[in-house]
Amino acid sequence: MMKQKRYMLLYKSYFIGFLFLFIASLIIFNLFYIQNCSYKYKKSFIEKTIRTNLIKAKRGNIYASDSSILAMSIIKYDIHIDFRSISEKLFKENIFFLCNSLESLFKKPKNFFYKKFQYEKKKGNRYFLLVKNLDYPHFKKLRNFPIFNKGKIRGGFIVEKKNFRVHTLESIGKRTLGYDDHRGKVGLEGAFSKYLKGKNGQRLEQRISSNIWKPLNSGNEIDPEDGKDVYSTIDISLQDIAYNALLHELTISHADHGCVILMKVKSGEISAMINLEKTKKNIYEDLRNFSVWECSEPGSTFKTMAILAALEDKKIETDMMVNTKDGIMKLRGKKIRDSHYSGYRKMNLKQILEHSSNVGIAKIIYKNYKENPKKFIEHFIKWKLDKKIGIDIPGESSPFIPKPGGDNWSSITLPWMTFGYNLKLTPLQILTFYNSIANKGIMIKPIFIRDIKFYGKSIKKYPIPIVMNPSIASKKSIKKIQNMLEGVVKNGTAKKYYHPEYPYAGKTGTTQLDYWIKGKPLSYNSSFVGYFPAKNPKYSCIVVISKPEKGYYGIEIAVPVFDKIARSIYPKIVKKYLNKNNKVDINFIKRIKESKNSSLIHYFDQGIMPNIISFPGKEIIPLLENRGIKIQYKGIGKVYFQSIKPGNKLKKNKVIFLKLEE
């Protein structure tokens, strides 16, 4: 019996011990669970109410060749008020003074602000929006107003900075400047984004309501690093000239789109690049970069390349004669025609290029290369016309040069190539080749950037020039081609625009589009590519206008644009307008007095006063002041009096007085 009692006591003690252990374990488990859940809930709460937000860096500026700004980031300010941070005493003592100040700044009744602030203060609003997108001068005044001058902690003055991108060439170079955003990377903005964008900073923010976050004071805030500045080769005044010349012709011819590229011969610097396309609203805008993107058959501008290849192989000579007969050549069941339907009869090589004879060029090239077309094609491979140039800005299309034995080669490919069909090139690729002719055979890579700077200090300089090919052909062959291109303007398809005081050289082109589609209405590309002056050229230029409705030959559509550009720039680059005594030539003065066009700014660059009578004051005055010229004027409307007569030399710091009237 005693033994049984001892067992019962032993079992009882075991049970109590087990129960105690179980309860202790349960308590420990619950404590752990509660602690763990608390951490998770706390973490979840923090994640939902506190966030790390990026502070966008200020994007670097893009500058023109004269260091004027093409693109810049401006700071705008959003101002919020934390009414809980403002003590009752500070609020009551200063609310009237604050509302008076706000009335003068925002031109709203002070009573409006007083009622609103009283209501928001009573409600305890910690993130009341006062104003959005405030500029710096207004922000500077606002932060010194009563209450706000106590800052964020005591005055509840919360400031948020935002960067806005502004382009000064929005209408005349939007696509060239480009963008870097959700649409992709385009133009200079896209090409040099890694330098321009800088490094973003970060800061902690607290959720105030569902979609409103308030910045927190924290030692963990990282300031953003500004982007670098990019110095481009674009010349604003030349960009303006090219834009107006192209727009004028597009409007007259009702063309679908067009482009102009202006390039410095020796350096390869792109001084102007304009692309315009007709919109649904029947206006022209800079929407796509046809200059580097549109790859099409070049037409007769390719004849220059074909002739240079044959000259290099010594297959032809400039005095050789070709009988074009009636302007039709039958080959493999196909007909090659000249635009001059009665034919040119017998012509030498120079005349073939001058008059752009399809039959003449096809005959001489087909005769000399039909047995070995590969030798002909090798020249274009050597000149790298089958590859992209590799320019800095994105979007360059790949050219196409057919090769013997390839899928795109047939028995008629060779003769049709000679006048620019069955191959494709972009306007910039064509210009690069012609620029090498102007540059005595040295092929230069087109460049858009000179320098990249950070706070005024150069961190990367771009080499100028970048030689792609030191000699595309012998000096003898280059000289012959230069002579022929000069003859195109003097005696050939562009002779309508020849003027001995503005000599330039180049080649017209007219290309039929979509000719393989039966039943489709005929449409054309009109082009002219060349350089000026004809001797010792400074600039090369290409004009391509697509699908004009009125006219289609290069001489009708493209040459007028080139001519306007060349004539506008001539006063800048040719010193012959000044005589030995450094006085302005009388004939030149006469031309200035008679001139009335958008290029007059270039006479100012020469230190000469042009005729600005009848120009709208709102256009001419800012234009001149931006050039550093001092202007004083009276009235509004158009200029009817100018104190310095047209043709007179401008003296430094001399003020020009203007009178304007409606």
Folded structure, characterized:
The protein has 662 residues and is of the alpha+beta class. The chain contains 22 helices and 27 strands. The strands form eight sheets. Strands 2, 3, 4, 5, 10, 19 and 20 form a seven-stranded mixed beta sheet that branches. The protein has a six-stranded antiparallel beta sheet with strand order 13-12-11-24-23-22, with helices on both faces. Strands 1-8-9 form a three-stranded antiparallel beta sheet. Strand 23 and strand 24 (539-546) form a beta hairpin. The protein is extended, with a radius of gyration of 36 Å.
Helix content: 25-40%
Counting H and I runs of at least 4 residues, what is the number of helices?
22
Strand content: 15-25%
Number of strands: 27
**What integer is the average pLDDT?**
84
Give a short synopsis of this structure:
By secondary structure, this protein is an alpha+beta fold.
Would you spell out the secondary-structure blueprint of this structure?
Layout: H1 2-49, E1 50-55, E2 62-63, E3 69-81, H2 88-106, H3 110-123, E4 128-134, H4 136-142, H5 151-155, E5 157-167, H6 174-177, E6 179-181, E7 184-186, H7 187-191, H8 193-196, E8 201-209, E9 212-215, E10 229-232, H9 236-253, E11 257-264, E12 270-278, E13 284-285, H10 290-293, H11 303-312, E14 321-323, E15 328-331, E16 334-337, E17 346-348, H12 349-354, H13 358-369, H14 373-382, H15 413-418, H16 427-438, E18 443-444, E19 449-454, E20 457-461, E21 467-469, H17 475-490, E22 505-513, E23 523-532, E24 539-546, H18 554-557, H19 559-573, H20 586-594, H21 601-605, H22 617-625, E25 631-634, E26 638-642, E27 656-661
Parallel strand pairs: 2-10, 25-27
Antiparallel strand pairs: 1-8, 2-3, 3-4, 3-5, 6-7, 8-9, 10-19, 11-12, 11-24, 12-13, 14-17, 15-16, 18-21, 19-20, 22-23, 23-24, 26-27
